[in-house]
Amino acid sequence: MTQATKPSGTAVALALLAGCAVGPDYVKPAAPAPEAFKEAQGWKPAQPRDHALPGAWWEIFGDPQLNALEQAATHDNFSIAQAEAQYRQAQALVQSAWSSFAPTGSATASTNRSRSASGQSVAVSGVRNLFNVALSASWEPDLWGAVRRQVESSEASAQASAATLQGVRLSVQATLAQDYFQLRALDAQKKVLDDTVAAYAKTLELTRNRYGVGVAAKADVVQAEMQLESARAQALDLGVQRAQLEHAVAVLTGKPPAALDLAAAPLTAKPPPVPVGLPSELLERRPDIAAAERQVAAANAKIGVAKAAYFPTLTLSASNGFQSYSLSSLFNAARRYWALGPASLSLLVFDGGARSAQMKQAIDAFDASAAAYRQTVLTGFQEVEDQLAALRILEQEYAVRAKAVKAARESVALTHNQYQAGTTGYLEVMVAQAAALDNEQAAVQVLGNRMVAAVLLVKALGGGWQASALPSPEQAGGEVEWYEYFPVPVPVR
User: Fold this and answer.
1) Which UniProt keywords apply (predicted)?
2) At a CB cut-off of 8 Å and minimum separation 6, what does 30 contact?
3) Do 223 and 430 touch, CB atoms closer than 8 A?
4) Whole-angstrom Cα distance, residue 471 to residue 249?
5) Mean pLDDT of 149-174
6) Which domains does the chain have, with CATH numbers?
């Protein structure tokens, strides 16, 4: 079964016979890029062999569970499936545009039974039949390039749809990674709270023993109980957020929430080095920038379509068939007839300003899409700078938090020993333990934020995608089966 990306045999030949294509040729809008990212100063680069992100970018985090979830989301997510269907729809529009290059043909068959009125002079009196079978074709040459500009616009739109598909895929993958690391951060917080509950339980037991021998006051026991139950409540409260994140991960992988159960596993990983590259490379990495640029190209071609409406159109037609009063002699050579024409040349003289308005609309649409492209580029630079700053600052904060956690643990140990020795009250123990818990939780939250910022940096850099992965204009129409150009069913093996 023969396949082709376009009806090249007929369409290309007809395109070569046509005249020039009116309208401006496309020039990519200028989008100035800085020489370097502002926040990349002092950024720790990846190893030379890791100069670019891999396609499966999530593997740089080294988490097998995340790898499996990302693979499931890439294949089973319904938002990605919707974007794939929309891309196929855009490809079909390219095929539809290409069909305008070819002539249109039709086959007709008719029969007529009649009887002449009395008194009329006719060659054949009485009842008679008239049978007719004919093939007809008409063609409107693309003299001014309206069809070519429409094809150009459709191909650019299909390329934009392909980039949008990759953008949706990247968004789903990044959202899943964010939810996953936030869930693991909650697991880590839960472990901190569980360890704290265990420590508070021991402190409560000690306080009760001291109260039993008359060394501690009843108020100390009540405060210890209050502190223990408060920590337990905090641990339970994390369950709500964790359940919601687990449900979100399930939906992203194309499963109902009840079908996914992620066992608790505290977050222990650290953000991997992410290859940033140069700002100018960002224009070729981000699918949303590529989609916006292709939309500009599509809008530019629409100007040519609007301009071609000012020029006359030529229509050529021909027909060939058989006509007979008898069905048995219908296909005799003597019953054959043919006709060339009519050939018509038409020019719209007055339309009340409709063509002028359409031209202005096409130009304004181009200006809007060009501005949207430049804004998308700026937003891309901003997102990279934001995440670079976040990672740099959060790394510094995490180092400070680690020192605070170490100091808080030492403070708890010292205060606890002093309380056992009777040299300090239980209030000091409570204050030290509360401070230690706050610092432990803050450190875990900062680590979770660092992982999320690393994911967002990867997303801002395009997730390892390159604009060279876009389908070429020749590929934008997809594969077309040859039998699709026949008006009657053809058996397919």
Assistant:
1) Lipoprotein, Membrane, Palmitate, Transmembrane, Transmembrane beta strand
2) none
3) yes
4) 31
5) 96
6) 3-103+153-311+357-485 (1.20.1600.10)
